[in-house]
């Protein structure tokens, strides 16, 4: 119980830390890239849960942006067990962005993925190995060019980055340790953002900071690498997953400047390290709750995508049937 | 190793699943693509230059190859060392996707300064200019469809 209190305290403290989200809201919490809830669970009632083929979920994340804009991101989740080893995951995300510059409400992206579980038989059963292979796509609902009074808004105020992405990754679990590796690769970009900082009066941090120009923004791929350790209470009601989430942005993003020339955004490439914690509470075999929070330890120098958060926390409810 | 091979074989047998996923993908792309067209607002913003601003150059809009009945004028104003392009209250152009305002050295833009998206197809509006371009070179104000490189309207600044 003391451990639980300690971990809840950690979550609370994360809520006031300076957090940077995933490369996209949704990517880091999709399918097997998130908590593997039922792993290592020997409770017979939980084993029965595996036979429930459908899961619907609803949740929201909250993030406080760089200029103290409020980002509410409600989402819907549907998972369907297609066979013993294959799941279909779908996640619909949306954004309600409220800030000093503008208020924007719209659908963000939809993620569709398949998750294939490969059971590894080894000579040491205690290893309890499992391998998941995930493949999916992300489809945007907008071209990232919402405006106010005819003037384009920066990406921090856009519900989507306007990229069609392929997501491919693996998730390996052994003795409660979990390792994720995944790529998110933009394969088609419909981003028509036309924000130029040269003509903008938008600023934050008491006028000291401006949003980067993102006219016709093109995004580079991300590589995600996560280490986690999963543990639970004796009655399997609570599951905790502290984890270190590494994201490498594989190249410099680009935009088209006021002279029509493509420019690389220096500092937009590089490494982000986040410390995060997921807590899942199993109400019963049909219902569970999940709370997530994280904070960065290392950030990229420039983050033109507008995903930076001072506060990041998410709550999700699942119904299995 | 054997288990991996068995698993791969089993994955092949789930081609129906993949077909379903592919179908969802295609439908979703069609749906999302329908969201990509972007039209310019039509509301009259009624923006006007400050009375203390000095007019430096001016020209009337002409209809470009992809425009329709372009009307109004564009003028360069100077105020407090800041240059702006002002479209007068009579400005009117037909709508189109991703219309931008350019200062250009040529009627068909090759060397240009992008002033951002056209705020409205109708009425007075003001665009800030970054720096101090030479208007002997940048002598055209354009309304240009960026997505398809289509010229809608141009005004020669004199």
Give a topology summary.
The complex is a heterodimer of chains A (321) and B (158).
Chain A: H1 2-14, E1 19-20, H2 44-49, E2 54-65, E3 70-81, E4 86-98, E5 103-119, E6 130-140, E7 147-148, E8 151-152, E9 163-174, E10 177-189, E11 203-204, E12 209-210, E13 222-229, E14 231-232, E15 238-249, E16 254-256, E17 262-264, E18 270-282, E19 287-298, E20 308-320
Antiparallel strand pairs in A: 1-20, 2-3, 2-20, 3-4, 4-5, 5-6, 6-9, 7-8, 9-10, 10-13, 11-12, 13-15, 14-15, 15-18, 16-17, 18-19, 19-20
Chain B: H1 2-12, H2 15-33, E1 54-63, E2 73-79, E3 82-87, E4 99-104, E5 112-117, E6 125-128, E7 140-145, E8 150-156
Antiparallel strand pairs in B: 1-2, 1-8, 2-3, 3-6, 4-5, 4-7, 7-8
Question: Can you put this structure into words, describing what you see?
Answer:
The complex is a heterodimer of chains A (321) and B (158). By secondary structure, chain A is mostly beta strands. Helix content of chain A is 6%, strand content 52%. Chain A is built from 2 helices and 20 strands. In chain A, strands 2-3-4-5-6-9-10-13-15-18-19-20 form a 12-stranded antiparallel beta barrel. In chain A, strand 2 and strand 3 (70-81) form a beta hairpin. The longest helix of chain B is centred in the N-terminal third of the chain and has 19 residues, at 15-33. In chain B, strand 7 and strand 8 form a beta hairpin. Chain B is built from 2 helices and 8 strands. Chain B is 19% helix and 33% strand. Chain B is of the alpha+beta class and 158 residues long. At the A-B interface, strand 5, strand 6 and strand 8 of A face helix 1, helix 2, strand 5 and strand 6 of B.
CATH homologous superfamily classification of chain A: monomeric porin ompg
Which spans of chain A have pLDDT < 50 for at least 5 consecutive residues? 4-25, 35-49
Helix content of chain A: under 10%
- Main β-sheet of chain A: number of strands, strand sense, barrel status? 12 strands, antiparallel, barrel
The order of strands across the largest sheet of chain B is 5-4-7-8-1-2-3-6
How are the strands ordered across the major sheet of chain A?
Answer: 2-3-4-5-6-9-10-13-15-18-19-20
Number of individual domains of chain B? 2
| CATH fold annotation of chain A | Porin
Order of helices and strands of chain B: HHEEEEEEEE
